[in-house]
From TrEMBL:
GO terms for cellular component: Golgi apparatus; membrane. The chain crosses the membrane at residues 20-36, 57-81, 87-105, 159-177, 197-217, 229-248. Gene3D superfamilies: NCX, central ion-binding region. It comes from Phoenicopterus ruber ruber. It holds the Pfam family GDT1. Keywords: Membrane, Transmembrane, Transmembrane helix. Belongs to the GDT1 family. GO terms for molecular function: calcium ion transmembrane transporter activity; manganese ion transmembrane transporter activity. It is a multi-pass membrane protein. This is GDT1 family protein.
Length: 254
């Protein structure tokens, strides 16, 4: 007698549904956490201020490359922890979400209404310093180095044509500001407990939305955003993820 094949199809459909649900859950978790972490953050202000002074597409490209690279690295770090039994990583990540949530709520409640302005001024000073360094470098190099002859000028121009100093500045400032930031740590924690592909896509989309908003809106949006309100909402979102662990089993596939 041939064994029935129907149960196999049912199992395959169930596992496919579980995978899709895991991806969607991870995507929604990542995009919501990134948005509440990044709005009014240092990387947001970097993109906003640089976009007011330089070509918007160049700034957007540099910032997005840095954030995309950081998201992929964070997901890899988080996914590497999956060698540890899931039950441990699940509850450790839940505890971290609760800690992040409580800290964000405390920070938000203690913040002054003009907290965003202080961050904005700090980033402006940092970008001004980088601009001065760039101008000094240009003055030192000059339009062309006479001693080295005309042969070296052409490759230099070609190199700068493909990678402009503004692109490098946007990439470097964003990458350094994001390293060790709350959103990076959150992405690592999410990748340890959720579908890594969903976290990578959701995180990238979340960063794209925030950076795109900063580049398009510039200073106007940066000045109107209440960092205090966003931080309090962020704390509530983090606590909601931690609270949901009480109702979701570690082996549920999310």
């Amino acid at each position: 007698r041939s064994s029935p094949v129907a149960p196999v199809h049912i199992v395959n459909e169930e596992s496919a549904d579980k995978t899709n649900l895991g991806f969607i859950h991870a995507f929604v978790a990542a995009i919501s956490v990134i948005i509440v972490s990044e709005l009014g953050d240092k990387t947001f202000f970097i993109a906003a201020i640089m976009a007011m002074r330089y070509n918007r597409l160049t700034v957007l490209a540099g910032a997005m490359l840095a954030l995309g690279l950081m998201t992929c690295l964070s997901v890899l770090f988080g996914y590497a922890t999956t060698v540890i039994p899931r039950v441990y990583t699940y509850y450790v990540s839940t505890a971290l979400f609760a800690i992040f949530g409580v800290r964000m709520l405390r920070e938000g409640l203690k913040m002054s209404p003009d907290e965003g302005q202080e961050e904005l001024e700090e980033v402006q000073a940092e970008i001004k310093k980088k601009d001065e360094e760039l101008q000094r470098t240009k003055l030192l190099n000059g339009p062309g180095d006479v001693e080295s002859g005309p042969g070296t000028t052409i490759p230099q121009k070609k190199w700068l044509h493909f990678i402009s100093p503004i692109f490098v500045q946007a990439f470097t400032l964003t990458f350094l500001a994001e390293w060790g930031d709350r959103s990076q740590l959150t992405t690592i924690v999410l990748a340890a407990r959720e579908d890594p592909y969903g976290v990578a896509v959701g995180g990238t989309v979340g960063h794209s939305l925030c950076t795109g908003l900063a580049v398009i809106g510039g200073r106007m949006i940066a000045q109107k955003i209440s960092v205090r309100t966003v931080t309090i909402i962020g704390g509530i979102v983090f606590l909601a993820f931690a609270f949901s662990a009480l109702f979701i089993s570690p082996d549920s596939g999310f």
